[in-house]
Design goal:
The chain has nine helices and seven strands. By secondary structure, the protein is α/β, with parallel strands linked by helices.
């Protein structure tokens, strides 16, 4: 795979799947616009990208704020003159059983995980439509397909992201823009380490390959979808879950 000179806009890029995706795309030659709320980590990561010889633009951005998203996209286009790849990775959890879940917990998760992706797609579609080419990759989740107790808000947000993926794929296909989703299973990240022990054990028991996924497992699939090798794939959900759900 070769992404030389392509420009990737990645949300939630300071750590976990987002950071590993940014590093993977950079190793393949892409220029990186890394966005996150964590300024400290974004700046700290700059050294790793510089070592790779990658052009790296860190932007502190809140995906729930449409103005901030638009300004970040404008800043990226001003620097690189284009955006070829969007990876909607930003996400949060606020787990609770449905009868205990607050409106705030519901709204915050839907706002970041689903509305944030909506904002980014709208903003990045502008330069992609002018280019008549682009790739959008949404990071969904296995629980958006199968559900999970205690994660009604997270599951709903990721299921919504899958529906958003399929609809936007239909809307943008005629302009040469592909839109796909990756649905990771139980991946070893800071977010999944925060799950209650009982939930983690139940999830791990369901994995056929009997190991947790790694951020590299997910990043490699995203890299393929971002490459020209996936130019005839759109509107799809690629499961990366070790056989946890089929």
């Amino acid at each position: 795979m070769n992404l030389t000179e392509k420009v990737a806009f990645i949300t939630g890029a300071a750590q976990g799947i987002g950071k590993e995706t940014a590093l993977t795309l950079a190793r393949l030659g892409a220029r990186i616009i890394a966005t996150d709320l964590n300024r400290e980590l974004l700046m700290k990561n700059a050294e790793e990208f510089q070592t790779l010889g990658c052009e790296y633009l860190p932007i502190v951005m809140d995906v729930t704020n449409e103005q901030e998203v638009n300004e970040a996209v404008d800043q990226g286009v001003e620097k690189f003159q284009r955006i070829d790849i969007l990876v909607n990775n930003a996400g949060i959890t606020r787990d609770s059983l449905i009868f205990r879940m607050s409106d705030e917990a519901w709204d915050s998760v839907l706002s970041v995980n689903l509305k944030g992706a909506f904002h980014c797609i709208k903003a990045v579609a502008r330069p992609m439509l002018k280019q008549k080419k682009g790739t959008i990759i949404n990071v969904a989740s296995v629980v958006g397909l199968m559900g999970n107790p205690g994660q009604a808000n997270y599951s709903a947000s990721k299921a919504g992201l899958i529906g958003l993926t399929k609809t936007v794929a239909r809307e943008l296909a005629s302009r040469g823009i592909t839109v796909n989703a990756v649905a990771p299973g139980y991946i070893d990240t800071e977010m999944t380490r925060a799950l209650p022990e009982a939930a983690r054990e139940k999830l791990q028991e369901a994995i056929l390959l009997k190991r947790l996924g790694t951020v590299q497992d997910v990043a490699q699939v995203i890299a393929f979808l971002a490459s020209d090798g996936a130019s005839y794939i759109t509107g799809q959900v690629i499961n990366v879950n070790g056989g946890m759900y089929m």
